[in-house]
Amino acid sequence: MKILHSVRSVQKLTSQIRSEGKVIGFVPTMGYLHEGHLSLMRTARKKCNYLFVSIFVNPTQFGPNEDFSKYPRDFRRDRLLCEKEKVDFIFFPDSEKMYPENYSTYVEVHNITEILEGSHRPRHFRGVATIVLKLFNIIQPDFAVFGQKDAQQVAVIRKMVSDLNVNTKIIVNPTVREEDGLAMSSRNVYLNGKQRKDASVLYKALKYAERKILTPGYNRDLGFIKEQMGKLIKSRPTVTGVDYISFNREDNLQEVTSLKNFKKGRLLISLAVRFGKIRLIDNIVVSVNL
Ligand code: PAF
């Protein structure tokens, strides 16, 4: 496994690989790798000749009051984990290389970035779309693997790739969960014991909604289900706020307020909940066929 820092060296290498007709798979990450990231690497490993992983805590996707400087980092550990997953190349650039002085080009994906996460983190998806397009331009992957845990990020990247004719296929892996259902996230390390215990309520609330929606005879009123989910989540003492609980079409993220208008299709149920300063997101997708 090789560690590459410079944009030029990666571009030279990937042009060479592509000219040989070999397949490049890519997993973009911000490091502090966990089982969720490793599952993305395993999916990618099976489908490519050369597997690239990027490790870059991207400053442009953090808001001014967010945890950029405190975001957990441990390159030595990440490197060992990548080695175990038979990664061929880690791209580990410096911030100054990705965003030199006077950097001024950003990617904005309208309509699907203003809602859900976007309404609480106004510039987040601009930063995500920008860095992902930059990484795609540098690595030129045939495909890239993302996690379903960040469902809106997936929708934004899919839209960007389609709108800008980017020649990279997007593959989505299911969310990897702890035994009690908590979705794996680098931010889980911030939770104290009580918060960690309470955090399992997020998946419970999502599964409650799924049961209600899928079981004939249950009350399928989405307003009622949302209210019950909120009550369940707030019953955990360390929960300090629910930013949103939302029902949306999975493909274009249009809000679904009633199942009367959504009898068939993939319904994204997502939420964001605060435990003190720690903010966790989660989602599930339900196949509705009423
Ligand atoms: O999902 C993440 O870790 C990040 O948003 C990504 C895609 C690596 C871009 O910085």
How would you describe what is shown here?
This protein is an alpha/beta fold and 290 residues long. It folds into two domains: 172 residues, 3-Layer(aba) Sandwich (Rossmann fold), CATH 3.40.50; 104 residues, 2-Layer Sandwich (Pantoate--beta-alanine Ligase, Chain: A,domain 2), CATH 3.30.1300.10. It has ten helices and nine strands. The strands form two sheets. Strands 1-4-3-2-5-6 form a six-stranded parallel sheet, with helices on both faces. Helix 6 packs across helix 7 and helix 9 runs antiparallel to helix 10. The relative contact order is 0.13. The site of pantoate has 10 residues, from strand 2 and helix 6.
Features of this protein?
alpha/beta, binds pantoate, 290 residues, globular, six-stranded parallel beta sheet, 2 domains, Pantoate--beta-alanine Ligase, Chain: A,domain 2
